[in-house]
Amino acid sequence: MPNIVLFSGSSHHDLSQKVADRLGLDLGKVITKKFSNQETCVEIGESVRGEDVYIVQSGCGEINDNLMELLIMINACKIASSSRVTAVIPCFPYARQDKKDKSRAPISAKLVANMLSVAGADHIITMDLHASQIQVRPRGHPGGRHGRHLRHHLPRC
Fold it and tell me: Which strand ranges, in their side-by-side order, compose the sheet holding 145-146?
């Protein structure tokens, strides 16, 4: 049976630490940095081979940087042979762009869900999506999960 490894993105380290404390886990070792051209670099600092990985990263603050960091972390864990990667995203990025309200308008929430799937997310845990039509689930996986109890520990977006 795989062990759980919990990583924190840089968006909300305090929340990740509270989750780790509640579960009796230590946060996994991860180094995130920016190159001089502002590209995000992520290094997973421990083996995740065969492990059940959870990555906590909110879609608040520097939303595009946080999203890219999450995608890179998911992919890094997946190619390092983790058994499963679950993205814990309390504030789902681009959730308000959930339908075509004008011709030629993108459905950005669906694009984000697709990017998470392509990066390697097996499951996505989020809470109170902007609209019910954004049922976020990676391709080939049954229904999404919602974490309403996280609301009390999140900054306002």
Answer: 4-8, 52-56, 84-89, 123-126, 145-146
Q: What is the pTM of this model?
A: 0.81
Query: Could you write out the DSSP letters of every residue in the chain?
Result: -PPEEEEE-TT-HHHHHHHHHHHT-PBPPEEEEE-TT--EEEEE-S--TT-EEEEE--S-SSHHHHHHHHHHHHHHHHHTT-SEEEEEESS-TTTT--S--STT---HHHHHHHHHHHHT-SEEEE-S-SSTT-----TT----EE-GGGGGG----
- For residues 4 and 22, the answer to whether their CB atoms sit within 8 Å is no
pLDDT tens, residue by residue, 10-28: 998 999 999 999 999 999 9
Question: Of 3.40.50.2020, 3.20.20.60, 3.40.50.150, 1.20.1440.20, which CATH number belongs to 4-153?
Answer: 3.40.50.2020
Q: What confidence tens digit (pLDDT) does each residue in 59-93 have? A: 788 999 999 999 999 999 999 999 999 999 988 88
The position carrying tokens 């308000």 is 96
Q: Output the pLDDT for position 142.
A: 43
Delimit the domains of the chain by residue range: 4-153
